[in-house]
Design brief:
Residues 9-263 form the Transketolase N-terminal domain. By secondary structure, this protein is of the alpha/beta class. It has 10 helices and 7 strands. It has one domain (3-273): 3-Layer(aba) Sandwich (Rossmann fold). It has helices at residues 3-24, 29-34, 36-46, 70-80, 120-133, 152-163, 184-188, 193-199, 212-224, 258-273; strands spanning 61-64, 140-145, 169-175, 178-179, 182-183, 203-208, 230-235. A 5-stranded parallel β-sheet has the order 1-2-3-7-6, with helices on both faces. Strands 4-5 form a two-stranded antiparallel ribbon.
């Protein structure tokens, strides 16, 4: 797809995120908005999928390790056609299949239930290793938050992925610099991220996480790497696309009220028409 097409889809996805979280009255807009461009490139341009067969054995896999950013994943899956966009407004409501964290048993297109931070990379390792053992060509992608790197299990999994030479595994690190209590540096400094993954035996690529062309090129480059996993360190903006949410830690887990919803939607609509 062209850059313009991907950017237009990303704006629609962001509108859906704002709409569903405001409707629910709870959720995590900041970190959902920051990963939209990464997810859009994956699901609309790069991943090998069968939308009408979400459990197709040879599909590429995706794990949202930072499971609280579920609205971002749900919005992309809906736009891609896995389920109706109208269902997004049932987010976090009683008996809805779209709960606060992804559920692989209930939601078409979700490959792993997530929510407890730090576990997604381990699950991705298992899928990638299974693909190797079964001589499958599918690739495994996992989205990790930069604050999530404070979890020790991430580094055990990073060591494991390198040990087993999982070159069919690509990890995105959403580097928006903020977590629930403040900046990553204030809470528990995770830098230097690129050096750490390199020291653990990974191929490391650093990109602008809002540039579709850079994202696509990094995904393609990762496919050429042999005998080691790839970490794509994506510099992003928390709350990307909504001016009053950008780089504001308070929007990590706060829902917009109706006036804020109207303001955010108006901004995004102007971007869509630009």
């Amino acid at each position: 797809m062209t850059r313009l097409e991907l950017e237009q889809i990303a704006i629609k996805v962001r509108m859906n995120i704002i709409d569903m979280i405001a409707e629910a009255g709870s959720g995590h807009p900041g970190g959902s908005l920051s990963i939209v461009d990464l997810l859009t490139v994956l699901y609309f341009d790069k991943m090998n999928l069968h939308i009408d067969d979400p459990r197709w054995e040879d599909r590429d896999r995706f794990i949202l390790s930072k499971g609280h950013a579920a609205p971002g994943l749900y919005a992309v899956l809906a736009e891609r056609g896995y389920f109706p966009v109208a269902d997004l407004k049932s987010l976090r409501k009683l008996n809805s299949y779209l709960q606060g964290h992804p559920d692989m048993k209930a939601i078409p297109g979700v490959d792993m239930s997530t929510g407890s931070l730090g576990q997604g990379l381990s699950a991705a390792n298992g899928m990638a290793l299974a693909g190797k053992l079964d001589h499958k060509a599918y690739r495994v992608y996992v989205m990790i938050g930069d604050g999530e790197l404070q979890e020790g299990q991430i580094w055990e999994a990073a060591m494991t992925a390198a040990h087993y030479k999982l070159d069919n595994l690509t990890a995105f690190v959403d580097c928006n610099g903020l977590q629930i209590d403040g900046t990553n540096q204030e809470v528990m400094n995770v830098n230097p991220i690129t050096d750490k993954f390199a020291a653990f035996g990974w191929q490391v690529l650093a990109i602008d996480g809002h540039n579709p062309e850079a994202i696509a090129a990094a995904v393609e480059q990762a496919k050429t790497v042999k005998n080691k996993p790839t970490a794509i360190i994506a510099k992003t903006v928390k709350g990307k696309g909504v001016s009053f949410m950008e780089n504001q830690v308070g929007w990590h887990g706060s829902a917009p009220n109706q006036e804020q919803r109207r303001q955010a939607m108006a901004e995004l609509e102007r971007s869509l028409l630009a």
